């Protein structure tokens, strides 16, 4: 604040009141200061947000790194549960008493053969058979679970699978029907004199016609198997293949008169 007397002209950016002069800031300077304040606030807010984002990213990186280290090999050794389980299975399948230079197969697989006898219902047994059995057990739990049936109530294919399983497991109905469904099926193919129903006629029965019908509808291979595959001489085309049918085991199992160990 300053006094002013006389005829000295006042500046354009000042106010005069009762002999006192008040100098005002230029409007351009005020705008500059306002812009500076806004920019400073924006900068501070951006800095805080970036700092928070960096902290979050750092925490995520640490968590992911710890998870990766727990599942990845440390010093060349995998200590995860899956690795330990697989290693234990491999070790139990080996036979360390065998000399690998003399019989490597016995050294690598002797333990598995020792602990896994061929079931009485199977002609052979291996890892894929065990895997199939595990898959069958999973499917069995699914088809017996009412919740699964409810979830797939609108899926026609899944409902057919449920119906198929329930029909096969309905033992009381199977026992009540006895052999009648099989007799009816035989009758659909011009009967059979062994069934004793007296409807079979040699002059009206044709072997070729019956085999074609059975193969087409039931995909059964009583005497020979029919399939398609690539031509051995031209892999760009497929050919119809005819092969011998089988009873589940090779002919050696039926013809050889040896001991179980030899088989």
UniProtKB/TrEMBL annotation:
Gene3D superfamilies reported in the protein's UniProt record: Neutral endopeptidase , domain2 (1.10.1380.10)
What's any GO biological process attached to this entry?
protein processing
Q: Name one GO cellular component term.
A: plasma membrane
Domain Peptidase M13 N-terminal: from-to ranges: 100-260
Q: Which Gene Ontology terms cover its molecular function?
A: metalloendopeptidase activity
- InterPro entries from the xrefs? Peptidase_M13, Peptidase_M13_dom_2, Peptidase_M13_N
Domain of life of the native organism: Eukaryota
Sorted alphabetically, which PROSITE patterns does this protein's record hold?
Answer: NEPRILYSIN
Family matches, as PANTHER family:
GH14155P-RELATED, ZINC METALLOPROTEASE FAMILY M13 NEPRILYSIN-RELATED
The name this protein goes by in its record: Endothelin-converting enzyme homolog isoform X1
Q: What is the lineage of its organism?
A: Eukaryota, Metazoa, Cnidaria, Anthozoa, Octocorallia
């Amino acid at each position: 604040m300053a006094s002013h007397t006389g005829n000295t002209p006042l500046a354009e950016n000042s106010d005069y009141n009762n002999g006192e002069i008040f100098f005002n800031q230029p409007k351009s300077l005020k705008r500059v200061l306002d812009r500076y304040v806004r920019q400073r606030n924006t900068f501070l807010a951006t800095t805080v947000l970036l700092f928070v984002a960096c902290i979050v990213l750092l925490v995520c990186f640490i968590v992911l790194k710890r998870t990766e280290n727990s599942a990845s090999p440390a010093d060349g050794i995998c200590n995860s549960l899956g690795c330990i389980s697989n290693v234990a299975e491999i070790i139990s399948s080996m036979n360390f008493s065998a000399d690998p230079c003399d019989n490597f197969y016995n050294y690598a697989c002797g333990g598995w053969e020792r602990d896994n006898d061929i079931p009485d219902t199977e002609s052979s047994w291996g890892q894929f058979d065990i895997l199939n059995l595990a898959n069958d057990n999973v499917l069995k739990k699914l088809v017996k679970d009412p919740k699964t049936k409810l979830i797939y109530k609108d899926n026609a294919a899944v409902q057919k699978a449920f119906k198929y399983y329930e029909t096969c497991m309905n033992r009381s109905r199977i026992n009540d029907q006895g052999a009648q469904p099989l007799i009816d099926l035989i009758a659909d193919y011009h009967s059979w004199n062994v069934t004793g129903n007296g409807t079979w006629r040699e002059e009206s029965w044709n072997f070729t016609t019956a085999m074609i019908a059975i193969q087409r509808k039931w995909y059964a291979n009583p005497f020979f198997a029919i399939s398609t595959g690539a031509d051995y001489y031209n892999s760009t085309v497929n050919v119809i293949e005819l092969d011998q049918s089988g009873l589940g085991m090779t002919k050696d199992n039926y013809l050889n008169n040896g001991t179980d160990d030899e088989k």
